[in-house]
Design brief:
- This protein is α/β, with parallel strands linked by helices.
- 26% of the residues lie in helices and 30% in strands.
- The chain contains twelve helices and 22 strands.
- It has helices at residues 80-83, 93-110, 116-122, 176-189, 241-253, 265-273, 341-355, 372-378, 391-403, 416-425, 445-454, 466-478; strands spanning 12-20, 26-30, 33-37, 45-53, 58-67, 123-127, 138-145, 151-156, 163-165, 204-211, 218-224, 278-285, 297-303, 307-315, 321-331, 362-366, 383-388, 409-413, 433-436, 458-463, 481-489, 499-506.
- The strands form four sheets. It has an eight-stranded mixed sheet with strand order 6-21-22-20-19-16-17-18, sandwiched between helices. It has a seven-stranded mixed sheet with strand order 9-8-7-10-11-12-13.
- Strand 19 (433-436), helix 11 and strand 20 form a beta-alpha-beta unit.
- Helix 7 crosses helix 8 (372-378).
- The longest helix has 18 residues, at 93-110.
- It is globular.
- 44% of the residues are buried.
- The protein binds S-adenosyl-L-homocysteine (SAH).
- The site of S-adenosyl-L-homocysteine (SAH) has 20 residues, from helix 8, strand 17 and helix 10.
- The site of S-adenosyl-L-homocysteine has 20 residues, from helix 8, strand 17 and helix 10.
């Protein structure tokens, strides 16, 4: 490999961007020596400024696009470079899909050790979105102040905690902007202070907004630095006197049934209630000096405690047409729920199709979260067992099963690598099909080993990280399985992330 001899910081160079890293940075080479250039698009002729030189590569900043790539498009959001939420917004969506598909393919080949021809045979085209913007059903905005002291909502710039004001993220629901504007003007009018991280003072820290895309129901949760326990008499952290008095007044007037959490609380809830779809307004109490956004305690201050959303089963063989049945979920501010509902339907329908159920099977759904995939599977299986680490998620899963009238899904709390050997070894519960949907780090070795011992006919692997997917597929294939089908699903357009669904079949023993 070419060495970095001669290159130095601040040097200005011209390169052609010929490739892209898995994190979305453009790669340009000079005499074989690679430069990683954030915000450069594959195909760009670019003027770059070197920022850091390492032994075998260097980082550079994009100074100027000399000749734009045919894949370069005008980014929808003016903050896309600073924000970091989107890494590849300036890349044509078709090219984004090709990039993700290739990333999965490369990982399967390089990390999984599968032959390229084999992968090309089993891989199906990536499932993209028709409208790759405004797809997120959940947004969390930090609240702060601008230089003039006005309250602002936005995002943290780069790796800092400086808030750049932007209420109009083009990945989120269209209603977010209006909701944030209502909250900011309420804060201004009633002198409600934003939380100040450095001093640990002030009131409003974050705003969480969730929307049920099928129900149209909206939830707003304000994360606040105040417990409300003293009825407003001892207001913590720099709430101005008049605002504090207001809390006391509201409490005395009995406007709220029990506690009052915000100055002139009813003014805010009334204004929010005017927004179409508004279903739930709550506060989350977070008094800790931490980066964790949500506090554990949630109090509804207007409307219902939860919103609802339905995920429909779709026909993967027929352009994802709606089968006319779905599962309805109740979502609270703390519930885990997939953020892109349109693509979630496609991903789960794919997992269901790959599972090939006839109604007779015993199915395990490992890493089941709130039981989303489990409940999808239950309708076509004899019995489903879901396993999930987080106890609250399992409680949600049980409630969701009951609400949907599903009786053949049982949920177990614990680590998949502990619950599975226990249930299989001691109780002899078998599996015809096992579905896994682990976090980024993939499956635990013991979990994979137990799956192989249980010898289900089929394994469906849903993955949010194709590198660990490839590693785990190698283990399963060495243990007597073969990859039959594989398809990426673009759950996060404009970012470098992708989901992948894989079907493995047990090899017939000879
Ligand atoms: N299938 C679900 C959730 C997938 S996210 C859905 O689509 O909604 C992965 C889940 O695995 C998380 O809910 C996480 O809490 C859980 N988890 C993480 N490590 C685990 C482990 N060792 N055993 C079981 N579950 C685990």
């Amino acid at each position: 490999m070419k060495q970095s001899v001669g290159y130095e910081k601040n040097q200005v160079l011209t390169v052609e961007i010929i490739d892209i890293t898995s994190e979305g940075e453009g790669i340009g080479k000079i005499d074989g020596f690679p430069f990683f250039v954030k915000d450069a698009v594959i195909g760009d002729q670019a003027q770059i400024r070197v920022t850091r030189v390492k032994k075998n590569y260097a980082y550079a900043r994009l100074e100027k696009v000399l000749v734009p790539s045919p894949f370069r498009v005008d980014a929808k959001c003016m903050f896309h470079k600073q924000c970091g939420g989107c890494q590849i917004q300036a890349m044509d969506y078709g090219r984004q899909l090709a990039f993700k598909e290739r990333k999965v393919r490369n990982n399967l080949i390089r990390i999984g050790g599968f032959a390229p021809e084999y992968i090309d045979r089993v891989m199906e085209p990536i499932v993209g979105m028709e409208e790759p913007f405004y797809y997120r059903n959940k947004a969390q905005y930090p609240i702060g102040v601008d230089k003039e002291g006005n309250p602002v909502a936005g995002f943290y710039a780069g790796r800092t905690h400086n808030i750049i004001a932007n209420t109009d993220c083009c990945l989120g629901a269209a209603e977010n902007k209006e909701i944030l504007e209502v909250i900011l003007s309420y804060m201004k009018e009633y002198h409600v202070p934003a939380y100040d991280e450095t001093r640990g003072e002030g009131l409003i820290r974050h705003v969480l907004i969730r929307k049920g895309f099928t129900s149209g129901e909206i939830m707003v949760c304000l994360v606040i630095n105040y417990t409300g326990r003293d009825g407003g008499r001892k207001v913590h952290g720099g709430i101005r006197k008049e605002a504090a008095k207001d809390i006391v007044k509201s409490a005395v007037k009995g406007v709220a049934k029990e506690r009052v959490y915000l100055p002139s609380q009813e003014k805010l809830t009334q204004a929010l209630a005017m927004i179409q779809g508004m279903t739930s307004v709550s506060v989350s109490i977070n008094r800790d000096r931490t980066n964790v956004i949500m506090g554990k305690e949630i109090h509804t201050i207007w409307g219902k405690d939860v919103i609802r959303d339905t995920i429909h089963v779709r026909d993967v063989e027929n352009d994802f047409a709606d089968f006319g049945r779905g599962i309805t979920f109740s979502i609270s501010p703390l519930s885990f729920y997939q953020v892109n509902p349109v693509q979630t339907e496609k991903l789960y329908s794919l997992a269901l199709a790959y599972a090939g159920l006839t109604g007779k099977e015993t199915v395990w759904d490992l890493y089941c979260g709130i039981g989303t995939i489990s409940l999808f599977l239950a309708e076509d299986a004899r019995q489903v067992y879901g396993v999930e680490l987080v106890a609250q998620a399992v409680e949600d899963a049980r409630e969701n099963a009951a609400e949907n009238g599903i009786c053949n899904a049982q949920f177990l709390v614990g680590k998949a690598e502990e619950v599975l050997p226990e249930k299989y070894g001691k109780e002899g519960i078998a599996a015809d099909v096992i579905v896994v949907d682990p976090p980024r780090k993939g499956c635990d070795g013991v979990c994979l080993e137990t799956m192989i011992r249980m010898a289900p006919e089929r394994i469906v692997y849903v993955s949010c990280d194709s590198a660990t997917l490839a590693r785990d597929l190698r283990v399963l294939c060495d243990g007597g399985y073969e990859v039959k089908r594989c398809r990426a699903v673009d759950m996060f357009p404009m970012t470098v992330h992708t989901e992948t669904c894989v079907l493995l079949s047990k090899l017939k023993s000879t």
